[in-house]
Design goal:
The chain is mostly helical. It is 72% helix and 0% strand. The protein has helices spanning 2-17, 28-38, 44-53, 59-83.
Length: 86
């Protein structure tokens, strides 16, 4: 139960990352921690790509890519929850 809540919180943090924020307002430590929490439940390549794209200076492109990757991670976490590994 605690793992599910932690994964849900990590996804919430990553949703906030998808918002168009200036570089000065981004919080890389919280993003890094959220991605680390999701590592057992989501594909490592997807998480790595999210991390790299979070630093894209083009806000529109960053937001679009991060939202797509977030949907993939949400599906992976939901699959983990259905199979009992979360």
């Amino acid at each position: 139960m605690r793992e599910r809540k932690t994964a849900a919180l990590a996804l919430t943090i990553l949703r906030e990352t998808c918002r168009p924020l200036p570089a000065t307002e981004r919080q890389p430590d919280s993003i890094r921690l959220a991605l680390r929490v999701l590592l057992p439940y989501a594909d490592a390549e997807t998480l790595s790509l999210f991390w790299r794209c979070a630093d894209n200076p083009n806000a529109a492109q960053r937001g679009l890519t991060l939202r797509k990757l977030l949907r993939i991670m949400e599906a992976q976490v939901a699959r983990a929850a259905r199979t009992g590994s979360l």
